[in-house]
Design brief:
This protein has four helices and seven strands. The protein is of the alpha+beta class and 156 residues long.
């Protein structure tokens, strides 16, 4: 299901400045213009303190042979290199409504950041993305959460 802002304004497409580099890596799965929900819990960064915030955007998610990346209309959400062991490792799950949820610690992106970030993507490729992430986890790259997300997990 594509968002209205994607259909009208193309917000939530893979950015042109990143497309050539991502295509060179070999795109396995790409979905653009999908609803994305970003939840921040106890997030701290220089000049920001957020106890809880949920934002909805139009975005894109892409899986290549080397990375899992997500973009929203204003920029990059995350870019995890799945082949490099020193890369921050997100946990992936599929929630009860069929969305792919990727959760990670904000401190993975800088020592002055803290808190948890959870991004949920309503994509028809959720099961395929999860399976690809599971196979990466089997090779020791990305841990996965085999349960579904609950409201309790968001509060902790």
């Amino acid at each position: 299901m594509k968002t209205l802002t994607y259909r009208l304004l193309r917000l939530g497409a893979l950015p042109k400045r990143c497309r050539s580099a991502i295509e060179a890596e070999g795109i396995r799965i790409l979905d653009e213009g999908i609803p994305v929900t970003v939840t921040l819990r106890n997030y701290r960064a220089p000049g920001k303190r957020i106890r809880w915030r949920r934002q909805r955007h139009s975005g894109a998610i892409v899986l290549t042979d080397k990375r899992l990346a997500a973009f929203v209309w204003w920029g990059k959400l995350f870019d995890f290199r799945i082949r490099e062991p020193q890369t921050p490792r997100p946990s992936a799950s599929i929630d009860d409504v069929g969305r792919l949820c990727v959760a990670f610690d904000a401190s993975s992106f800088g020592v002055r950041r803290a808190g948890s970030i959870r991004c949920c993507f309503r994509t028809e490729h959720a099961i395929d993305l999860r399976a690809a992430l599971d196979s990466s986890a089997a090779r020791g790259r990305i841990p996965t959460d085999h349960g579904t997300a609950t409201a309790t997990e968001l509060r902790d």
